[in-house]
Amino acid sequence: SHPKPACRYPPSQWCRSLEIALECKKQCMEVNAIRPNQTVPPVSVTLYYESMCPDCRIFITQQLFPTWTMLQDIMAVTLVPYGNAQEFPSANSPFSCQHGEPECRGNMIEACIIHLTGHSAAFHIIYCMESSADVLNAAQPQCLQLYAPSIAWSTVDSCVEGGLGYQLMHKNAVMTRALNPAHTYVPWVTINGEYTEENEDKAMSSLFQMVCQLYKGVKPPACTGAAVRLNRS
């Protein structure tokens, strides 16, 4: 099951912490509709990961998604499901994954969902999958129907089973192989297109604080802890 607890905090608290933002996700996103200056580029966070990697799942569910929920107007997230997989273009099974065939299918499902649903819906669906006990079974029907009800599972399945899914995975393979320095483990995080050990450590310990510090524009209320008054309209 994937319970959706009701928000039990006042408006000034909706984006105050990662834990509250998860509970008050809808309300926190409404607060963030008060958008900062869009002329300042957002902080770009790219995650290279695997769908069944335990550490990747922890980072997505405890750091990346909660931080994006609060700071989506000052950060841009790119998800690249591939990780330590290997590509064999001439083989019957062109991809081999660290956690076996189920992970290859999970990677491809998530790549297809990103392609088919758009970034915001895809991130919600992938968070739903990665926070569930069974990543693959959570995708259909629960997570897809919850966050992208207009997309039929048959559309995702056609992508996974057809040529499009392999094209998307090849694209992710190319992006992953192009990393400089090359990745040596997952999750692997780049900030504004660059990897450093210092940034990686900061992202893993408090991505929220890091994004707030790196953003060059006016800090949103979630970063400053200021109370926000919502317009009822």
TrEMBL record:
Subcellular localization(s) per the UniProt record: Secreted; Lysosome
InterPro entries listed in its UniProt record: Interferon-induced_GILT
Domain of life of the native organism: Eukaryota
GO cellular component terms, A-Z: extracellular region; lysosome
Enzyme class: oxidoreductase
Known EC number: 1.8.-.-
GO molecular function (one): oxidoreductase activity, acting on a sulfur group of donors, disulfide as acceptor
Pfam families: GILT
Example GO BP: immune system process
Keywords attached to this entry: Disulfide bond, Glycoprotein, Immunity, Lysosome, Oxidoreductase, Redox-active center, Secreted, Signal
Subunit details: Dimer; disulfide-linked.
Membership in a protein family: Belongs to the GILT family.
Protein role: Lysosomal thiol reductase that can reduce protein disulfide bonds. Facilitates the complete unfolding of proteins destined for lysosomal degradation. Plays an important role in antigen processing.
Protein name: Gamma-interferon-inducible lysosomal thiol reductase
Species in which this protein is naturally found: Amphiprion percula
